[in-house]
Amino acid sequence: MKSPSPPNKTLTPLSAKVVQSLRQSLIAWFKANGRSLPWRETRQPYAVWLSEIMLQQTQVNTVVDYYHRFLARFPSIVSLADAPQADVLKQWEGLGYYSRARNLHKAAQLIRDRHHGVFPTQFDDIVALPGIGQSTAGAIATFALMQPRPILDGNVKRVLARLMAIDAPIQEATTAKIMWPLSARLLPDDPEAAWQFNQALMELGATCCTLKNPDCSRCPWQKTCQAYARNLQGELPVSVKRKPVPHHDIGVAVLWKDETRQQCLIALRPQDGLLGGLWEFPGGKREADETLPACVAREIMEEIGIEIAVGAKLTEIKHAYTHFKVTLHVYDCLYVSGIPQPKASQALQWVTLDEMSAYAFPKANNRIIDLLKSNPAMQLTLC
Ligand code: SF4
After folding, report:
1. Are 172 and 269 in a shared domain?
2. Which residue(s) pair with 251 in the sheet?
3. CA of 33 to the centre of ligand 1 (A)
4. Which of 235, 305, 306, 361 is 20 to 30 A from 111, comparing alpha carbons?
């Protein structure tokens, strides 16, 4: 296997003939191979915007159902803007990266207040909305407003890095500076052709020029692709090496109000931060040399100001976030004394298991709820 040469800072310009050939072959390939997806059937800016946000961190197969349900629940930008944030997060529940939902909601409110509820048509106004970067704005402009704009999401960066054998880390801003002009150079001027080209470029990255095992045998760009010519598909794109991901043990309380085990205490996470605006079972990080039951009791005293009895361990749940991993150690707990105060959360609520379905929880917490629901007669002996 050949290794990449030192990072190239500039690219050899593509001739008009090569550009034309790349456009034509990619669009023809897309017409024959592009998947039929609901957001490709519409030019509605709101629907296109929603799909682009949902697709930022999530696979197409997962997005389709969420996309339909979200549009059914919030059929217009104004209906989204007017909804409480809790309802928006509930619709987003399970899709992850919840800042996307919070930003979508904030942006809808800005559109309602500044643009009379109509999605803006000026590129500068689009890119000024929360949660919309240059590439997402480019996609919305191209797909909904028929304004050809280049795109540069993760899939597109990978395809372009291979096409031109760009051997600089694709996460770096300096690499994007090389790639933006390339994406723009390849884009046709005609709005309809630009729609097809950008859709095709995304499709190529998602289904053919994949991160692992790209299927070069059916790629329309094989003849021009420098990575293919030099057998560098496995080396490109170059990524910045990630630091080892830290792991935290988290003590979590399923905290019952009394021995009838009807109501449980849940906490609303702070707005700004990981999983902001979602509800959770309270708890926190274990300190060095601390037992897990002691961690749960301490966290509840520090964050809620009440004394509890910590009982048996119910379950252990492992979960990975982008920058760290956690193991949730979940304990059956009973309220003892004190007045619950939301010292580290926005709000606290005693709820029954049935009532929990009205609140949005992170995925790992939903697994705790599933466990509790599947064991309705769970009667554990408190220590
Ligand atoms: S030939 Fe292979 S590596 Fe090159 S763009 Fe096509 S799928 Fe990607």
Report:
1. no
2. 284, 329
3. 15
4. 361
CATH of the domain at 352: 3.90.79.10
Best substitution site from 22, 212, 222, 230 to test ligand 1's pocket, by max atoms within 8 Å of Cβ? Answer: 222
Taking the C-alpha atoms of residue 41 and residue 43, their distance in angstroms, rounded to an integer, is 7
CA–centroid distance, residue 19 to ligand 1 (Å): 16
Instruction: Indicate which atom in ligand 1 lies nearest the CA of residue 204.
Output: 7
Amino acid 379: pLDDT: 42
Of 7-16, 82-91, 357-366, give the lowest mean pLDDT range.
7-16
Q: How many domains does the chain have?
A: 2
Pocket, ligand 1, Cβ cutoff 6 A: 159, 162-163, 208-209, 214, 216, 219, 221-222, 225, 227-228, 233
Q: Which domain holds residue 264?
A: 247-374
pLDDT of residue 242: 81
The whole-number pLDDT of residue 9 equals 57
Residue where one domain finishes, among candidates 162, 196, 229: 229
pLDDT at 2: 38
Residue 171: give its domain's CATH number: 1.10.340.30
Q: The whole model's pTM is what?
A: 0.91
- d(C-alpha 169, C-alpha 167), whole Å: 7
Cα(203) to centroid(ligand 1), Å? 12
- Judge if 206 and 274 occupy the same domain: no
Does one domain contain both 257 and 190? no
Cα separation of 348 and 345, whole Å? 7
Q: What is the Cα–Cα distance from 65 to 54, expressed in whole angstroms? A: 11
User: Which helix or strand (DSSP H or E) is residue 351 part of?
Assistant: strand 347-351
Question: Are residues 190 and 50 both part of a single domain?
Answer: yes
Atom 4 in ligand 1: which residue has the minimum CA distance? 225
The reported pLDDT for the residue numbered 13 is 86
**pLDDT, tens digit, for every residue of 192-237?**
999 999 999 999 999 999 999 999 999 999 999 999 999 999 999 9
Residue 236 lies in a domain: no
